[in-house]
Amino acid sequence: MLSAEDNEILTRVGPGTPMGNLLRRYWIPACLSAEIAEPDGPPVRVRLLGEDLVAFRDTDGRVGLLEESCPHRGASLFYGRNEECGLRCTYHGWKFDVTGQCVDQRSELRPFSQRIKTGSYPVHESGGIVWALLSAPLGGPAQTLTPFRDFGTESLPAPLATANKEVIYCNWVQSMDGDLDTAHISNLHQFDAIDGIPDDGTDEPGYPSGYQSMRFWRHDARALIEVEDTWHGFRYAGIRVTPNGHQHARITAYIFPASTIIAQIPFSTRQIFVVPADDYTTHRYNFTTQPPQNPRGYGGPVFFTYPTYPFEMMAQKGVVPRPYNRGNDYLIDRDAQKGVSYSGIRDFRSQDAMATETAGPIYDRTREHLGSTDVALIRMHRLLLRCAKALAAGEDEVTLPALAGDFRSIRGAEKILEEGEDWRVLGTNDDPVVQEALKAAEDDDR
Questions:
Q1: pLDDT confidence of 314, banded at 50, 70, 90?
Q2: CA 282 – CA 194 distance, rounded (Å)
Q3: pTM higher than 0.90, yes or no?
Q4: Per the CATH hierarchy, to which homologous superfamily does domain 27-145 belong?
């Protein structure tokens, strides 16, 4: 368990807080490109690290991220007119470009627009996401800009770039805890029919089918968790024994401060970035970083996709709807819970949302009792707290992890291990299946 003081440091992200200051050193998703797809289209509200902002795309296609409050009399720029390379407040007609500079004051007898600049942040579009750096307002010293971290989206062909986001109504750390918890898949995501799936021949060293993988989760609920520290944070494996007595490893990567690449057969590069809107609301961005890299089709057909909502409920402009929510008890089916679904909640992602949201807006970690399956999330908590405290104490920011490196080399992975095989190699550049996939991708480019 954490002390009350450490839980406050870990969870509070507003301006001036230790964790808020730490997260502001990294480029984080602000909104989806699809939300402001059209030049001169409607602006969107952006709630980010406790700040109220507004994003818009101007006539020339440039993106601005400004304080929502107009610096004249405080009216919301969300209601502004997006026209002729600027966002014009409809209260008195003051107009601001994407840098926040006031460029017109149509109601003033003696305009002084050159002296007015509203708060704004640098942005960078990549992979269908508008990223922002809240530590470095435009116009500040160049040295305050930390490099944009390319997870692979910079060279990703536009047709392959997919991104969406989901709103979760609880503190961001609770959502992260779920991503770093491989034990819950043996319970929360189970359904009784998995016991009836026969061995299809893939319960042997190598890559199982997707259905067999789920069968392994249910078969061995007592996963052994092993963690390896890395330059970007850490990777951890959940190791289970299969019905045939083999070791099955699922490897998830944690990228400091708030993203994960979850295990997948044979390996995964798709990333989840958890962004605090404020202390009580979280945005989960799920995005492609690299082209598909599974030339042999290991794992067989995908047995669930993200998101798992029915077609008619699919995301609008990339924002995933929440038909299963706390207000309707996540549409839990108690009859199904008795013999079909372990949780009684039909939707896969909503099972996770139930677990994290019902712990409360900010879970009181002075009351928790952690066990052997919690070692990965404990590692994350300690790393975040250590860095936030060091930054608050004035230590040099070079102590912060994952500001630079080969982010394209970070992968999740899943495999049934050969005798003596080290799970730490899986998903790395030394993994034969990764080398095979990279070579296939190079051949396709020729």
A1: low
A2: 32
A3: yes
A4: Rieske [2Fe-2S] iron-sulphur domain (2.102.10.10)
